[in-house]
């Protein structure tokens, strides 16, 4: 599917990123395996995870090189993209998968907890994509695959920083798709459901929580990889600006915000007429305070 292409996968030292990197290589891509080797909260540095995945790809007969630069700084993100060009002579796709978690209820969240997550997820997706965009524009081709989340698309408890970043990534992807369409550059999002260390801290204090974790554990990171490979391939040349979710063997196309109900008043509105007319007319179409689990309420098989 991606024979001869050069693909950068960030956060590829484990979990979803690792499986995407392995799948890209197994389908013929040359891969830059990027990972700083940090803990889930972004602390620490270790070159081992990236090199280990590179070694796995080499053992399978594929081509790969490690990168341990951070996506959260523009200069270092540019080095990740340059690594692909230096080693393989070009770059054809980026998968923005790197991420950290610093979960906290909003009224307790510190500025550092907010900033760290936004930097890695949203700034990271921007920095890597922006660095790749220069090459994509020159060669008149390229594909970007970004990891969003239903925590941002729908909602979740205790993740204001992560949710804001992930919804921002969906908007960033759509803007890239619009701005770079004339250069044959595509940009799409995946909202993955998969067990990884990123969600390994989910509490298991009750039988209900244990059952939920057991269900999530069945959703392996390897289930996400096929869609990422497809979106990076030429077979997906007509797929642009879309958001998909993957849960086990289930792929969903996710809706994007559009008007649901419109109320018009020829003489205009006052706060009182909004209260008396507009809101009562729209109330039946209000969205409840759903979380991701409320919308995806069935178990995928």
Automatic annotation (TrEMBL):
Q: Which residues cross the membrane?
A: none
Concerning InterPro entries, the annotation shows: KR_dom, NAD(P)-bd_dom_sf, Peroxisomal_Beta-Oxidation, Sc_DH/Rdtase_CS, SDR_fam
PROSITE patterns under this entry? ADH_SHORT (PS00061)
Give all residue intervals belonging to the Ketoreductase domain: 5-201
What protein is this chain from? Answer: SDR family NAD(P)-dependent oxidoreductase
Q: Which residues form a coiled coil?
A: none
Highest taxon listed in the record's lineage? Bacteria
Family in the record: Belongs to the short-chain dehydrogenases/reductases (SDR) family.
């Amino acid at each position: 599917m991606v024979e001869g292409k050069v693909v950068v996968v960030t956060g590829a030292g484990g979990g979803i990123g690792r499986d995407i990197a392995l799948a890209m290589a197994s389908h013929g891509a040359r891969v830059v395996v990027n990972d700083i080797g940090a803990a889930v909260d972004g602390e620490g540095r270790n070159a081992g995870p990236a090199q280990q995945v590179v070694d796995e790809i080499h053992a399978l007969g594929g081509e790969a090189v490690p990168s341990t630069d951070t996506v959260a700084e523009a200069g270092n993100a540019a080095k990740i993209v340059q690594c692909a060009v230096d080693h393989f002579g070009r770059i054809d796709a980026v998968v923005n998968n790197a991420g950290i978690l610093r979960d906290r209820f909003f009224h307790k969240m510190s500025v550092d907890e907010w900033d760290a997550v936004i930097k890695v997820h949203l700034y990271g997706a921007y920095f890597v994509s922006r660095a790749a965009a220069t090459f994509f524009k020159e060669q008149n081709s390229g594909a970007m695959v970004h990891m969003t989340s239903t925590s941002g698309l729908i909602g979740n408890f205790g993740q204001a920083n992560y949710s804001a970043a992930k919804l921002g990534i969906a908007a960033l992807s759509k803007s890239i798709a619009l701005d770079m369409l004339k250069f044959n550059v595509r940009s799409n999002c995946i909202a993955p459901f998969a067990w990884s260390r990123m969600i390994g801290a989910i509490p298991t204090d009750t039988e209900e929580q244990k059952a939920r974790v057991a269900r999530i554990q069945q959703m392996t990171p390897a289930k996400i990889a096929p869609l990422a490979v497809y979106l990076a391939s030429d077979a997906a040349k007509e797929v642009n600006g879309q958001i998909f979710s993957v849960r086990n063997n289930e792929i969903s196309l996710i809706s994007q915000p559009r008007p649901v109900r419109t109320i018009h008043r020829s003489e205009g509105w006052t706060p009182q007429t909004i209260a008396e007319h507009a809101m009562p007319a729209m109330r039946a179409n209000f969205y409840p305070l759903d979380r991701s689990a409320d919308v995806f309420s069935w178990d995928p098989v």
